[in-house]
């Protein structure tokens, strides 16, 4: 009898350890801050030295489109509104350029008319999480809740039934967060063109924004711009015109047929 009790205690202890390990795994894994070697002098950018290329590729996340084709994918992060999204939408409409806007729960609640306009004008509205947390610190069910709340709010507001694209908040991710988000139907979208544009107190003018983007231009580029930037709004039309003059075509993420990693 004593032996049976000891065996039962051992089984229960083992089970509790396994349960605890599973819970930790949901929010565990090495966290990464997305970074990349920028394109310079026409050379392609790279994530080969960042330590996460294999897991980005494994989970089908987006870094580059087809680098043999002069295609560009324009994406905006919309954590909050600073008065520039409407002018950005005006430019996109006048130029016939599709874009993806990654929005937070705050943005849905604060600027519903702009969200409705994004959808009505044919842009992708993607998920940037409800509260913009570091998702690598959250258990799997909380990650899913962060994503579900945005998707449901956009559906109720605009009638958009599906939401397929996610930009990890703060660019922080782990293999677990990529796996969980993919499991619930999302493709994580990173970027291959970016510059420090999010600091509204350190805007440097439209020319700086233009030069920063055009210096990194390359085939298959996923461009990250923050909609809070006055510089971006003022430079956008010229960026579009001059990229096109160089033979580039702006495409929607839904049109991406090739994902590349290097």
Low-confidence sequence ranges: 1-26
Shape assignment: globular
Task: Please bin the fraction of helical residues.
Answer: 40-55%
Radius of gyration: 21 Å
Protein name: Delta-lactam-biosynthetic de-N-acetylase
Domain NodB homology: 70-251
Signal peptide: 1-26
Pfam families: Polysacc_deac_1 (PF01522)
Quick recap of the structure?
The chain is of the alpha/beta class and 262 residues long. It has helices spanning 2-27, 53-58, 85-95, 105-110, 112-120, 140-158, 175-183, 206-214, 230-245; strands at residues 32-33, 71-78, 100-103, 124-127, 165-166, 172-173, 187-188, 221-226, 249-251. The termini are far apart.
Q: Secondary-structure map with pairings?
A:
Elements: H1 2-27, E1 32-33, H2 53-58, E2 71-78, H3 85-95, E3 100-103, H4 105-110, H5 112-120, E4 124-127, H6 140-158, E5 165-166, E6 172-173, H7 175-183, E7 187-188, H8 206-214, E8 221-226, H9 230-245, E9 249-251
Parallel strand pairs: 2-3, 2-8, 2-9, 3-4, 5-7
Antiparallel strand pairs: 1-6
């Amino acid at each position: 009898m004593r032996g049976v009790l000891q065996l039962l205690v051992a089984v229960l202890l083992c089970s509790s350890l396994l349960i605890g390990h599973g819970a930790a795994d949901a929010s565990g894994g090495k966290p990464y801050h997305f970074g990349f070697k920028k394109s310079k002098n026409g050379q392609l950018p790279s994530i080969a030295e960042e330590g996460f290329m294999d897991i980005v590729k494994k989970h089908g996340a987006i870094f580059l489109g087809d680098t043999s084709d002069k295609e560009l994918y324009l994406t905006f992060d919309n954590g909050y509104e600073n008065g520039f999204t409407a002018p950005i939408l005006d430019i996109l409409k006048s130029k016939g350029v599709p874009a993806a806007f990654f929005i937070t729960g705050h943005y849905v609640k604060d600027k519903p008319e702009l969200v409705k306009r994004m959808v009505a004008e044919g842009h992708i509205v993607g998920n940037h999480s409800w509260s913009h947390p570091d998702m690598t610190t959250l258990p799997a069910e909380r990650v899913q809740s962060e994503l579900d709340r945005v998707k449901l709010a956009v559906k109720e507001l605009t009638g958009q039934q599906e939401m397929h694209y996610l930009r990890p908040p703060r660019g922080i991710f782990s293999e677990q967060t990529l796996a969980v988000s993919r499991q619930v139907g999302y493709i994580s979208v990173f970027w291959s063109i970016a510059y420090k544009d999010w600091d509204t107190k350190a805007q440097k003018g439209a020319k700086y924004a233009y030069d920063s983007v055009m210096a990194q231009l390359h085939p298959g580029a996923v461009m990250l711009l923050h909609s809070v930037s006055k510089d971006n709004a003022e430079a956008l039309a010229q960026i579009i015109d001059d990229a096109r003059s160089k033979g580039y075509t702006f495409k929607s993420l839904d049109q991406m047929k090739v994902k590349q990693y290097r």
